[in-house]
Write a structure and sequence with these properties.
Layout lengths: L4 E4 L1 H9 L2 H13 L10 E4 L4 E6 L2 E8 L4 E9 L8
Parallel strand pairs: 1-5
Antiparallel strand pairs: 2-3, 3-4, 4-5
């Protein structure tokens, strides 16, 4: 199985940079693992029309889109569960 490339949308990249270092360290391995398995156990599909999924890491969520034709995982948003689904 080929590895997927992981890219961040601008707002996701900025949000990741604003997190405290301990939270970044908790989320980073989960984001990296999406390169090997973009649909891990526990991921949920959010929108029926597109390949938008989310994974939970404690109180944080990582929302991403899978583009199988170009082997890309695009991280759209990440953050605390109370905020991440706004304006999705």
């Amino acid at each position: 199985m080929a590895k997927y490339r992981i890219e961040f949308a601008g707002c996701a990249y900025r949000a990741f940079g604003k997190l405290d270092p301990q939270t970044r360290e908790r989320l980073a391995p989960h984001i990296s693992s999406l390169a090997d398995e973009p649909r891990p156990i526990g991921s949920k599909r959010l929108v029926a029309a597109e390949e938008i999924h989310r994974i939970r890491v404690g109180a944080y969520r990582i929302v991403y889109r899978i583009e199988d034709d170009v082997l890309l995982v695009l991280v759209l948003k990440l953050g605390h569960r109370r905020d991440v689904y706004r304006n999705l």
